[in-house]
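Exercise 3.2. Students should predict the tertiary structure of the chain below and write it as structure tokens, then compare their answer with the key that follows.

Predict this chain's 3D structure.
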Amino acid sequence: MSALPAELYYAEIDASTATVAALLDCTDPGLAIPTCPDWTLRQLATHLGRAQRWAAEIVLRAVPDGRLPDDEAARSRWLTAGAARLTEALREADGEEVWAFGQMTPASFWTRRMSHEAMVHRADAQLAAGDEVSLTPVLAADAIDEWLTVMSGPISGRPDPRLAAPPQGRSLHVHATDPELATVGEWLVRHADDGIHVTAEHGAADAALSGAAADVLLVLAGRKPEFDPAVRVFGDHDLLSTWLQLLTQERLRSPADGHPGTSVAGAGPGDHGCRAGSFPSTYTE
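Answer key:
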């Protein structure tokens, strides 16, 4: 999938963070986050704000303020300030090479990554609060692409967890059906003799997951079950279930080597059970 304009990513970081901040202002901070087991709204907000400051630190090489304020009235401002710091750092960095998962890469990696991070955690907060989740289709599709091609694959030199499922010779088709996506909403995941191949195309597969990009993303990210009525599953349902389960377990078990106190592969032991598909930083008070 072609890279989206940077300003679209910046706007999503700001908007999703502002939504979480608004919920933090008007909702009990002890609200449980079902899609991130053992987390409260306060912990999710701390995670999001800290992750944004951590990413900005990578880009700016500066020390972030990573603790949610004790003053409840100051918490939403702290959260949105982290988003503003991040987007400012990313604009300043432009095409500069920065660290990302054990290698140097253009700062635009973090523009995309943290846009999706904010979007998924905004959905976590909205689902917990009982609010409607509405994600921009092109951004949700881009997050699906990142999940299938980057975040679910090998990170920091580790083996590719996708090799465990689907079995060799089997395949999965993922289809975001939003009309405005046209030809950029389909992916084929194949386990060939030489490994896992993910291509942006329509094709026959052993199992298929389809629905609006937002709903498909939330299933892949572990925020909705694959039997949610908002999506449809065709073919070998067990194959899809096993694939989703194995990838989630891998992320919970094996954080990549990264920043001290941080697991960056998807979801690590310090994340108190927040599921794969987002950028975690270990929550502590």
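Discussion points: The helical segments are 6-26, 41-60, 72-93, 108-129, 137-151, 213-220, 237-253. The longest strand covers residues 186-192.
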